Amino acid sequence: MKTVFHKATERGHANHGWLDAHHSFSFAQWYDPEKVHFGALRVLNDDIISPGMGFGTHPHDNMEIVTIPLEGELKHKDSTGNEEIIREGEVQIMSAGSGIYHSEFNPNHDQHTNLLQIWVFPEKRNIEPRYDQKIFDQEGRHNQWQTVVSPDGEGALWINQKAYFNISNLEKGKNLNYEFRNPEQGGYLFVIDGSIEINGQKLGKRDAVGISETGQFEIKSLENSKLLLIEVPMMELA
């Protein structure tokens, strides 16, 4: 099993006043040649957006964009006519495909929004842009993996890539195994909250580890923990 450990304190950080952002991979003005991507996973941003603020209309193309609210709400509007609000417990996906414009704002004026925004390179380029969101039952992730994004359906949001997003709320003292759909793929495990141990390595809140060259691995929860595991093809950048 091959692992690469990313400490929370070593992420990129940019505080724009209205936006306080941490970057697990190189993004905008922050660049680390050792943290450009993990396989098809290109971006994992941990954003805190001030009340009433947000990202104005901007373009994307040929990227699969997944948004997971952790606190508060986010209002999305795009050039294909979608105008929605997503909340904690929901997951949103946008296949930018051949090109799309969208904006994202915190619609509340008395509460910040904290979200994870994740970009994955697509399997097929220039597809028709697509948007979807779904609320997931929290009990479905209690001491087990709940797949929220998948190319296979299975009650999850569809993605244009052989990628699987899995969330678990793992109680202290519990062990949880993960078996790769494809042993040639890798997994990026991000600790949203809590503390775990994997392969002798302890990880705390917002720490992450990339895992590859194995068919499965086991996690031990050292305290109540919330986990995000993203399985992706281990592609190289051209």
Write the layout of secondary structure elements.
Blueprint: E1 2-6, E2 12-15, E3 19-23, E4 41-49, E5 54-60, E6 64-71, E7 73-78, E8 83-87, E9 90-95, E10 100-105, E11 113-120, E12 130-135, E13 146-150, E14 157-158, E15 164-170, E16 175-179, E17 186-193, E18 196-198, E19 201-203, E20 208-212, E21 216-221, E22 225-232
Keywords: Iron, Metal-binding
GO molecular function: metal ion binding
Binding site for Fe cation: 58, 60, 102, 104
Task: Give the structure's gist in a few sentences.
With 238 residues, this protein is an all-beta fold.
Can you tell me about this structure?
The mean pLDDT is 96. A hairpin with a 3-residue loop joins strand 2 (12-15) and strand 3. The chain has a seven-stranded mixed β-sheet, with no helix packed on it. A seven-stranded antiparallel β-sheet has the order 2-3-4-11-6-9-12, with no helix packed on it. It has a four-stranded antiparallel β-sheet with strand order 5-10-7-8, with no helix packed on it. It has a single domain (2-232), classed as Sandwich (Jelly Rolls). By secondary structure, the protein is mostly beta strands. It has strands at residues 2-6, 12-15, 19-23, 41-49, 54-60, 64-71, 73-78, 83-87, 90-95, 100-105, 113-120, 130-135, 146-150, 157-158, 164-170, 175-179, 186-193, 196-198, 201-203, 208-212, 216-221, 225-232.
* Largest pleated sheet: 7 strands, mixed
CA radius of gyration is 17 Å
Q: What is the CA–CA distance across the termini?
A: 25 Å
State the assembly state of the protein chains. Answer: single chain
Proportion of residues in β-strands: over 45%
> What spatial form do the alpha-carbon principal axes imply?
globular
Count of DSSP helices?
0
Q: Biggest sheet, strands in spatial order? A: 1-20-17-22-15-13-14
Task: Give the CATH level 1 class.
Answer: Mainly Beta
Structural class: mainly beta
The CATH topology is given as Jelly Rolls
- The strand count comes to 22
Helical coverage, percent range: under 10%
Named at the architecture level, the CATH assignment is Sandwich
Helix and strand sequence: EEEEEEEEEEEEEEEEEEEEEE
